[in-house]
Amino acid sequence: MHELTLCFNLIRILEQTANSASPPITRIKTVWLEIGELAGIDLDAIRFSFPIAATHSLAKDATLKIKTQAGQALCHNCDKNVTLSSLLAPCSICGQYNYTITQGKVFRVIRMETI
Ligand SMILES: [Zn+2]
User: Fold this and answer.
1) Pairing, β 28-36 against β 63-69
2) Which residues, 6 or more positions from 82, have their beta carbon under 8 angstroms from its beta carbon?
3) Measured in angstroms, how far is the CA atom of residue 88 from the centroid of ligand 1?
4) What gap in Å lies between CA 115 and CA 60, rounded to an integer?
5) Across-strand partners of 83?
6) DSSP state, 100?
7) DSSP secondary-structure letter at 57?
8) Which of 51, 56, 34 is nearest to 104 (CA)?
């Protein structure tokens, strides 16, 4: 379950950021994540893993908010940007796989609210 590993890494980065703030942040109240639909990340697994990873951290009891980013690709046959619902989906216009993914693989913190 790589989502748990992602959450542990996320908490470590949030704590480093909190500790280097001046004055240091003592508690993280809310974390906003942006996750791409093509990032290969299960959102339910993230929601499940986050509180486990946050135990004994500054983000203990923090609320997690997730914003999704739609998948997009530039199709080289159609020369158009198309929406891609998954990494296994063909171009929605020509049905081929001759495309370059241009959006939807992000995993990042947009914002955190602290006390
Ligand atoms: Zn196409």
Assistant:
1) parallel
2) 72, 73, 74, 75, 91, 92, 93, 99
3) 14
4) 12
5) 72
6) E
7) S
8) 34
Neighbours of ion ligand 1 (CB under 5 A): 75, 77-78, 91, 93-94
Kindly report the CATH number that applies to the domain delimited by 2-70+104-114: 3.30.2320.50
CA of 40 to the centre of ligand 1 (A): 22
Distance 74 CA to ligand 1 centre (A): 8
Cα–Cα distance measured from residue 60 to residue 92, given in angstroms and rounded to the nearest whole number = 42
| pLDDT tens column, 33-82 | 999 999 999 999 999 999 999 999 999 999 999 999 999 999 999 999 99
CA-CA distance, 101 to 72, in Å (whole number)?
A: 6
E strand or H helix at 72, and its extent?
Answer: strand 71-75
Encoding tokens for residue 51?
């509180």
Q: What is the dihedral of CA 42, 48, 54, 56, to 10 degrees?
A: -150
The domain spans of the chain are 2-70+104-114
Task: Indicate yes or no: pTM above 0.90.
Answer: no
